[in-house]
Amino acid sequence: MNKLQRAITATTIAGVGLTLLASPAQAKGDEIGGVGEQYFLNDSFNGAANRVLFYGEGRDRAYVGDWDGNGTDTLMLRRGNTFLVRNSSTTGGADSTFAYGDPGDTVLVGDWDGNGTDTLAVRRGGTYHVKNTVSTGYADTVFSYGDPGDSVLVGDWDGDDDDTLVVRRGGRYFVKNDLNTGYSETDFYYGNPGDTVLVGHWSAGQKGDALGVRRGGTYHLRNSLTSGPADTVFGYGNPGDTAFVGDWNGDGIDSLGVRRPSNPGDDLDCPDFPTRWDAQAYFDYYYPYYGDVARLDADNDRKACEANAG
Ligand SMILES: [Ca+2]
Ligand SMILES: [Ca+2]
Ligand SMILES: [Ca+2]
Ligand SMILES: [Ca+2]
User: Domain 12-260 belongs to what topology?
Assistant: First the structure.
């Protein structure tokens, strides 16, 4: 829709060059992605989760944000256009629910007005419908940025506390620091075009949010949108995990979490599934995390219960 402003600064940062895994976007502000009802949160940059919790169902869509403005990020689940808010990072049910947008809408999370509370924006193509309260109702702000097919990241790029958008095209990022229709203000290069990129406030001294790159189970975090090597490199979880970002303990520093199904054990056998396709769906759901946990694939060709009818 809008042509983004041409290069003002072209700065290459984070010169790590490893083989890439194909992964969905897992940035702050976007849907977490992945499956599983089990969440492993880590308040520091090491390999061990210090909070493990269960929330909702494995196929729920999930988002991270500070819904009550108390300084800590927690999960929110989505079923169609119903959102289930939880305000603590512990196992339990929703604290509140509300409806917003249409079931097929793409939803982004951000603190759009800088008041300390995260709310939703609905994306329809290159147009964004921003709402500054977590409740049912009409959008407070509507603006357009970039093209309908662009991937976007949400963050506080200039450190003034409000979140805005970056359009990502391959390894190039176009920054805008307000929610008005118009051109980008700056752009820069980061990592490789195929990288999975995370957004976060990784360190106490940094101004606003910066980026991190995920390669398999290794994370390369850079504390500013400037040239240079990663400031923090560490391993977390498994390469198949879905990773996401939040400030779980409210210390102002964002860290990681991963999402994973809980292990179902070997309770089911092929005759327990109505059709082989049901068995295959079960197999495909758990295989990335636990392998053939129910032993449905006797000949190891990743086709489950081929002898079943259907
Ligand atoms: Ca909160
Ligand atoms: Ca807000
Ligand atoms: Ca900002
Ligand atoms: Ca924190």
Answer: Tachylectin-2; Chain A (2.115.10)
